[in-house]
Amino acid sequence: MSNNWYTDNRQxxxxxxxxxxxxxxxxxxxxxxSRLSQVQxxxxxxxxxxxxxxxxxxxxxxxxxxxxxxxxxxxVRRHAGxxxxxxAAGEKPTRVGRDVPAYWLAPAVExxxxxxxxxxxxxxxxxxxxxxxxxxFLCLALAALGRRNEVRAEWLGTAFGELxxxxxxxxxxxLWTAAxxxxxxxxxxxxxxxxxxxxxxxxxxxxxxxxERATGLxxxxxxxxxxxxxxxxxxxxxxxxxxxxxxITSDTSVLEPDGxxxxAAGEKPxxxxxxxxxxxxxxxGSEPEREMLSRVGELRxxxxxxxxxxxxxxxxxxxxxxxxxxxxxxxxxxxxxAATALRVVADAVLADAEELMKTASLPTPSQVSKEIEWRQVxxxxxxxxxxxxxxxxxxxxxxxxxxxxxxxxxxxxxxxAGVMVLIGLGFLVHPFWIVVGLVLLGIAGYGYWTARKxxxxxxxxxxxxxxxxxxQAKTAGAELAAYKAGDTARLATVAGDLEEVRKRLTS
Length: 507
Known about the structure:
Elements: H1 2-67, H2 71-88, H3 105-111, H4 120-129, H5 131-144, H6 153-160, E1 167-169, H7 170-180, H8 185-199, H9 206-211, H10 229-249, H11 274-283, H12 290-303, E2 317-320, H13 321-329, H14 335-344, H15 346-360, E3 368-372, E4 375-380, E5 383-384, H16 386-397, H17 409-426, H18 432-485, H19 487-506
Antiparallel strand pairs: 1-2, 3-4, 4-5
Helix pairs in contact: 1-12, 3-4, 4-5, 5-6, 5-7, 5-11, 7-8, 8-14, 10-15, 10-19, 13-14, 15-19, 16-18, 17-18
């Protein structure tokens, strides 16, 4: 029997070891399958990227072969960049070496070559070839070169076009920011503002955005009565609105052209700057090569796995008009953009300010209601209303009831039990019960005394509550009188706030 047990035990241990080995092998196989799947996925992804990049490279090579026939147009673009850089440096550029038939860029560049003297003949030729692109080039180039007085209204209108359902194109955004930064003079800026105003019709949330620019305002104490909350909030909002308007319009740097407007000839400029849009406009190329040049940008992005994305086109969306205005209004480091955005929404902001003025100027109520000692009391500037105060006092006094049978149920019960035990058992059965009866009578007497004392304390507390009621009502009446006495000063304050807002928004 001992040998059988030993043999079975050894076999069981061997089976356990074999199961452990099988589990380890299974786990290792699962891990290997997982790693193999990852390696296969990574290899497939890389292979797909390489295939895409190779296809793009092949197509890019083919397009470049086709672009060889547009060498003259490429030379015009190179020369245009040189002319702008030379003019920005204050030097005199050379004349255009060659012209490409039907390509607007060469005559457009030649037209602005001499500062202060536009060549009308070549300008007319450029307009004939492509009026929209020539107008856009002239507006952006002259603004970036500081020659805002040479920009014409008809060019600005042609280049800007119309806003499509509140959506702003990159060209429109560039003209907008150039105008804001002083690139087109006062009249050009006013024209741009008028176009943007037309696109914001029906939107009236701008006062809230402007209020966020308010700084340095002290926090006023809340009004003493809830009836004044609406007026108080309207007055506080109007004060914040005034502070926000002042913060945007008080920057004196907006009176001079912004330095960010100047043409950047060196490093790559900001993607949304005037210089960047000029380069993008020039890089579009002539009509026959435009699609190929656009495709070149897309293919370059594929070859570099997205590290060199295409610059897009002038017609791409720059964002929604409303969101761009909100962003500009919040820009503390771009006073030109904030001030222009405020001019665009000025009508809506002024309308909101006038509504706040009306609410803040509502007459102070002649009486208010306030909860004192858990009772509603009507107050007037002369003090608490007598009937209201008397009613509250009566209600407080009525909270204390006289002693009732329910309050004395315990003492009466102990008293009756004590008499019965004292007489029925003490005198007839045993003297011990006399002591028990007296104890019960003592308990009854203590209970009666406690009930009377409780009522007396409640009456005393009621008297104190009534006294507090009268004192607080008197104090609240004085607060109301003081608040009402300040009506004239408050009206003058909100009127002054509105007048300052109106002056700054209409000047």
